Amino acid sequence: MIIDASFINYRLSIITMKDWIKAARLRTLPLSLSGIIMGAFIAKWRLYGEGGIWDWKIFALALVVTLLYQVLSNYANDYGDGVKGTDAKRATEAESRAVASGRITAKQMKNAVILFSILSFVATIALLYIAFIPKYMNEFYIFIGLGLASILAAIGYTVGKKPYGYMGLGDLFVFIFFGLVSVCGSYFLFTKTFSWDMLLPGTAVGMMSMAVLNLNNMRDIESDRLSGKNSFALRIGFKNAMIYEMILLQLPLILIMIFLGLNGFIQNQNYYVFIVMILLIPFAKLRRKIMAVKEPKELDPFLKQVGILTFTMAVLTAIGLNFFK
C-alpha cells in the first residue's frame, strides 16, 4: 500500500496547528478583552458629552494588542510550567498542556514566546503611534514603557529563575495589568486624560481577573504544593481562598454601580444605564455553585463562566452608557 507523503505532511500540519490553537487557550480571550471594552466605551461616552472624537482605529488596534499579550502569556505559562515540571504533576492539565504532554517541544514553545513578544511590541508601537503621535510625545514614551512592562509581566509569571507566579504574586500582577492598566490605559488612549473615577471600573475588571486566577490556583492547589508553586491560594489555604473568591465575585458590580452613581445617573433618573445590574442574579448563582464545590478539580468549569461574566459586565456597561443616553 502506497501512502502519499504530501497527505501525511498535510495531516501532521493540521494536528500541529490544532495543538498551537489549544495552547493559546482561547477561552481566556474574552477576559483579556473585557478591560479594553470597558475603558474604550467609557471614553466614548465621555467624549460624546464633551464633543470629542472617538477613534475606532485605536479601539481595533487595542484589541489586537491585548489578544497578542494574552496569547503570549498563555504560551509563556505553558512553557514555564512545562520545563519546571509543574504541569506533569497535574493529572488533567498534563494531558492538555502542550509542552507537558510533548505535543509541542520546549524549544518550539520558547521560540513562540519570542515571536509573540516581538509581535506584541510591534503592535503596541503601532497602537501608540496612532494614539499619540505627533502631539503627545511624552505620553508615547510612557506607554512604550507600560507596553514593555506588560510583555515582561506576561512572560515572568512562570518563566525565569524567580517567576512571580511561584511566589504568590500572580494576583497582584493580574489586578494591575488586566484591571488598572487595561481599563485606565485604554481610556487614556482616547481621552489623553486620567480620571480618578476610572479606578472603580478598573478595580472591578481587575478583581474579576483575580477571581479567574484564584479559581485556577484553587483547582491546582495540591499539585502546586508538590511542585513548589506557592500561589496565593496555596499560601492562605483552600478554605480562605474560597472566602477570598466570594469577595472577588461580590464587589465588582458594586464598584460599577458606584461609578455610575458618581456620574449622576441616579440624580438624572437615567436608570437604563444600570442594565449591567441584571448580572446580580447570575453572579449570585455562580457564587453559590462555587461554594458548593468539595473537590478542587470540580472548579475547572467555573473558569470559563467567570471569564464570560466579566466580558458580559464590560459589554453591558458599554451598552448602558452609549445607547441609553
UniProtKB/TrEMBL annotation:
Residue stretches spanning the membrane: 28-47, 53-72, 112-134, 140-160, 172-190, 242-263, 269-286, 306-324
Entry GO terms, CC: plasma membrane
Documented EC number(s): 2.5.1.74
Family indicated by similarity: Belongs to the MenA family. Type 1 subfamily.
Keywords attached to this entry: Cell membrane, Membrane, Menaquinone biosynthesis, Transferase, Transmembrane, Transmembrane helix
Name of encoding gene: menA
Domain of life of the source: Bacteria
Pathway annotation: Quinol/quinone metabolism; menaquinone biosynthesis; menaquinol from 1,4-dihydroxy-2-naphthoate: step 1/2
GO MF term list: 1,4-dihydroxy-2-naphthoate polyprenyltransferase activity
Membrane topology annotation: Multi-pass membrane protein
InterPro entries referenced in this protein's UniProt entry, alphabetically: MenA, UbiA_prenyltransferase, UbiA_sf, UBIAD1
UniProt protein name: 1,4-dihydroxy-2-naphthoate octaprenyltransferase
Subcellular localization(s) per the UniProt record: Cell membrane; Membrane
Pfam families in the record: UbiA
GO biological process: menaquinone biosynthetic process; vitamin K biosynthetic process
Function: Conversion of 1,4-dihydroxy-2-naphthoate (DHNA) to demethylmenaquinone (DMK).
Reaction(s) catalysed (UniProt annotation): an all-trans-polyprenyl diphosphate + 1,4-dihydroxy-2-naphthoate + H(+) = a 2-demethylmenaquinol + CO2 + diphosphate
